[in-house]
Amino acid sequence: MPRRSWNIHLEEMMEEGVRFGHDTRKWNPIMLPYSSAKRKGIHIINLTTTARFLSEACDLVFDAARKGKQFLIVGTKNKAADSVSRAAIRARCHYVNK
Predict the structure, then answer these.
(1) Residue 43 in contact with residue 35, Cβ under 8 Å?
(2) Do the Cβ atoms of 93 and 71 come closer than 8 Å?
(3) 1, 29, 44, 87: which could join 37 in a potential S-S bond, CB 3.0 to 4.6 Å?
C-alpha cells in the first residue's frame, strides 16, 4: 500500500483538545502505550502515536473508497451529530447520529 501525505498537524490536534483522554478511574490498561501522562485525573494521549495511526487509518479508508466499498459513519454524541450527518450526506454514506 503506497504511503500518502495527509494534513495531520500536531498543533491543530492540541488546539482541538485531542490530547485529553479518559478519566484515570475509567481506563483500560490496553491504552497504556497510547497514554503519555496523567494530569489532574485525566490521561493525556500521545499525539505523535495518534497522528501516525490516524494517517494509517486515512490510507485504509482511502483505499477502501477507491475500491467502491460502503461506509457507515457513527457519531452519537450531541456535539458530533450535526457534523456526522453533514459529512455522511456529502460522502453519500450511511450514518447513525442518535
Answers:
(1) yes
(2) yes
(3) 44
pTM: 0.66
Grid cell digits, residue 28: 483500560
Check whether 82 has a pLDDT greater than 90: yes
Return the HEC string of 47-82: HHHHHHHHHHHHHHHHHHHHCCCCCEEECCCHHHHH
Q: Which residue has the cell 456529502?
A: 90
For residue 42, give the H/E element and its range.
strand 42-45
Give me the mean pLDDT over the 48-70 stretch: 90
Average pLDDT over residues 65-75: 93
Sign of the dihedral defined by the CA atoms of residues 27, 55, 47, 78, in that order:
negative
What is the spatial distance between Cα 52 and Cα 78, in angstroms, rounded to a whole number?
Answer: 28
Tell me if 45 sits within 8 A of 32, measured CB to CB: no
